[in-house]
Amino acid sequence: MKSTAKIICFLLLCVVFFQSCKLGRFVFYNFANITDYKIFPYRTIETSSSPFIFPEARHPKLPEDIETDNNNEPFDAYLDRTKTVAFLVIQDDSIQYERYFNKYAKESIVASFSMAKSITSMLIGIAIEEGKIQSVNEPVTNYIPELKPNGFGTVTIKHLLQMTSGLDFNESYTNPFGHAATFYYGTNLRKAINKLKLKDAPGEKFDYTSGTTQLLGLVLERALRTQTISSYLEEKIWKPLGMEYDATWSLDRKKDGLEKTFCCLNARARDFAKLGRLYLRNGNWDGTQIIPEQWVKASTKLDTAEHSAPFYQYQWWLTKNAEQFYAQGILGQYIFVDPHKNLIIVRLGEKTSKVNWPRLIAQVANSY
Hints:
Blueprint: H1 2-20, H2 22-29, E1 42-45, E2 66-68, E3 71-73, H3 75-81, E4 84-91, E5 94-100, E6 110-111, H4 115-129, H5 157-161, E7 167-168, H6 179-185, H7 189-194, E8 197-198, H8 210-224, H9 229-238, E9 247-250, E10 265-267, H10 269-280, E11 284-285, E12 288-289, H11 293-299, E13 312-313, E14 316-318, E15 325-329, E16 333-338, E17 343-349, H12 357-366
Antiparallel strand pairs: 1-9, 2-3, 4-5, 4-17, 6-10, 7-8, 9-10, 11-12, 13-14, 14-15, 15-16, 16-17
Helix pairs in contact: 1-2, 2-6, 4-8
Keywords: Hydrolase
GO molecular function, one term: hydrolase activity
Organism: Sphingobacterium chuzhouense
């Protein structure tokens, strides 16, 4: 009996160890999953007492069958096979198509992963409008002075927004000692940020890195002073948009934690769709300007004047000629907006299943 008790105590200590440090978390959980909101500490973002509900279309138009390997496959079956857990098509403010798979439902929480980058950009735009941040041309060292010795004196907030900062950051999620694992599984983001360096001069080329958005998160936290990023999202976006459900934002640690702004906003498909509706309407929500219209347009327009990529602006991805734009997460999470069709598509999944989702979603949008 004593030996059994010792084994149980040892196993419990192992679990505590695994959950309390980066390497332990990496070994125990192995790879990012849409249920990772369960393993990290978090702050809650409360919803409004008067939620906005998308009505169902009277005569919904369903997506066409998908052609795969010279065969037509029912769209529902295709989504199920490709590890989709939620797919919504909303046009003219009405739900045309809404399906959930693998025991998921409209109430099911899904981790956003890098869709949170686009949401972080929203909050930066609001903070600039309110004067908490002066402009996109400010050096990040105005807010993170400890990075001056690391050469960040000429890196601006705009460089971060456009992913042209020149940051030296290993984006690999399979390397337990790389930057991405440290930022995702680590327990001290501020300390990790303080170690960052540059590999290129800022403003020279596009290089997508999660560390870049986490720098934006620390800029935002410093600009907000006494308010957390989660409470700012709650006050400025979540409640004004009438989200149907509370959300959470994962932190690096429980005490004095910092939001993982490069990922990890945990919410439901319909509420993600409302964020798309907000940008579809140039930041205006039923008569109230939530995000400055100029910010939305700057975030979603084709602009390579300062060596930014033709497919990326202010933490949003753009399709060819910037006709559509979208937020994107690593496992195939998407908030896709087509202004010309007055249409929003949300896809949430357990995997990408090697599908080119931007192209497929654009095809679905073009069929409406």
